[in-house]
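Good day; I would like, with your permission, to put a structural problem before you. A protein sequence and the structure tokens that stand for its backbone fold form the material at issue. I would ask you to consider whether the tokens describe a fold that such a sequence might reasonably adopt. I set the record out below, with my sincere thanks for your time.
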Amino acid sequence: GVQTCALPIFAATVAGRSVTGEAEVIASDGRKIAFKVRARDGDEEVGAGTHDRMLINLARFDERLKAKFAG
């Protein structure tokens, strides 16, 4: 599972210029992990927001995919 909340972009980035992303864990509750995310174009912040992820049981997920696409 995932949820993303992006704040308005603060500045435009010129085509061809590198953008660096950062993520910081700000909370965790059981399987849910919340991140604060930021994008920078050199010294200028060009975007920010939050991003939530849910941890999954990979073996269970794999079995469900196999069953779904088996036939």
